[in-house]
Structure formats: structure tokens, C-alpha cells
Amino acid sequence: MGGGGQQTESGEPAKSAGDGGPGAVGSGRGGGNLSVFTWEEVQKHSHKGDQWLVIDRKVYNVTQWVKRHPGGIRVISHYAGEDATGASANWWNHRHFQHHAKPNVFCKDPDVNMLHLFVLGDSQPVEYGIKKLKYMPYNHQHKYFFLIGPPLLIPLYFQIEIMRTMVTRRDWVDLAWSMTFYLRYFCCYYPFFGFFGCIVFFTFVRFLESHWFVWVTQMSHLPMDIDHEKHHDWLTMQLNATCNIEQSPFNDWFSGHLNFQIEHHLFPTMPRHNYQAVAPLVQALCEKHHIPYQVKTLQGAFADIISSLKKSGDLWLDAYLHK
Where is the Cytochrome b5 heme-binding domain (predicted)? Predict the structure, then answer.
């Protein structure tokens, strides 16, 4: 995440970890005057003004350098006090890349920021219930999901969020380019549909796209483990937050090969059509280390979205009424 070998802004060299037994950062190979740190020591440096991270068994003090990180402070700070070896320097601070960095982790994965519309997982519903928070009738969220989630995510929320992000980050060049898209769109379709017809057509296409996007992305994430930071290792964290949908010509086509969501998270830059080739290798690795590798049917995955929402809603209601 820090470039695979970046030093701090002050040029402080990386501190390699030696073979300190269980709990040590790893075995150092550089020798010299490099120091050795345990994981407990590294984890103490996970605050805003004091951040260390580990890349390839070397400890880096990135407290000052995070300000110059090309992906922004937020995404690299997710790994303060942790092993960041698996994170690519090309993962910018866009919401989807934060999702890949910390999938299904509250306060770090923006995709589980539901704006109080839904409660997810097992812990959040109970926390809301104990605090008597009732922004929505969460015990019915598995029903109103159909009215809020699939139809409105892209046509409404994403459109607002995209514009807001460009303005708040002062990405004026991006904003100008995005405006040219709408200009070109109206220039192409206005002669056929008129002004209001163009708006209706654009909204309808986004409406259809939004349904596909929500079902395809959430079938592999929403029913999985959603919780606060647990500091799991990279592989375990990705496998706990994702599952695959069984391979078939239709499922591959319908999902754009995102039915191999596990492989997509482990190899995000790999061309999607290659996921089916590496899936057996990943599955064998998971079996070797006793890490669950879940594969579902398409229908079962869709049903699990609703059942997981209902389960979370019931947990909220029980905590709201009785705790």
C-alpha cells in the first residue's frame, strides 16, 4: 500500500523484524542495525498521529508519509498497526478500493455505510437496539429493501455521491469531464426524445443497471460476516467477507465473472475471465489451511440477501424491546 518499499517522509529506513518466535513480526534478512518488533508493539502505533505498518515483514513508520500517499490518507490508515503486504499501491481512495482493502468492516468499508437505512450483520443491529435507535423499522428491512436498494442505489445515491465527491475534493477537471458526458448524451438523444424524454430514458437505464448491480454485488457480501475491525490476516478477512456463486455459462455471463468474488478480492487486477482458472488453486489453499471457501447457487445467494436482512432486523427488534 505504501508502494511496496516506501520509506517515511523523513527518509527513515524500514525496520526489519527478526525471528522472535510466536507474535514476532517475522524473520528479517537485512541484518545490520535493524531492530526487531513484536506484533503487539506494531499494533500500538495505529492512531492518527502515530502510524506504523508492515510490508513484506518490514516495519515502516508512515506517520508523516501518509500525507503524501497517492491513494490518500484514509485508505492507507486502514492498515495502521497491521500487515499491509497484500494491498496494492494502485488502490486509490475511491470507495470501491476501500471496500477491497477492508471488506465488510464498519467505519472502513464505505459499502456497509447504509445511512441508517439498514442494519447489517450480528453486532450492529444489537448496538442500534440497545441505544434505542430507530431511523427505520428495521424488523421490516427485508421487505423495504426492494423499494430502496435495487431501484435507487445508482439512479439516486450514486449520482449524488459522485457529484458530491468531486466537489468536496475539488476535482474540477473530473467534474468538467463528467459534465461533458451529460452534454454529449443530450446532444445525441435530444432530437429523438426531447428534453424530458432524455431524462426518462437515462433514469430508466440507470434503474435497470441498479437492479443488476445490487443483486450481483450483494449476493456475495451482504449475507457474509459484517462486523467491526477484527485484525484478521489478509486471506481470512477476504474469505470471511465474500463467497462465490457456482460456475455456469449463464452465471458467468450474468455476473460478468463476478460470481468468482473470492478470486476477484484476492486478485483485483486479474482479468475476470481468468478467475475460473485460479479458483481451484484458491480453493485447495483454503482447504489446506482450514479456511471456509463458500460456493452458493445463484438462487440461494439471492435468497440469502433477504434472509440475512431479516435476521439482522430480528436481532435489532429483540435488542430494542428487551435490552
Answer: 34-94
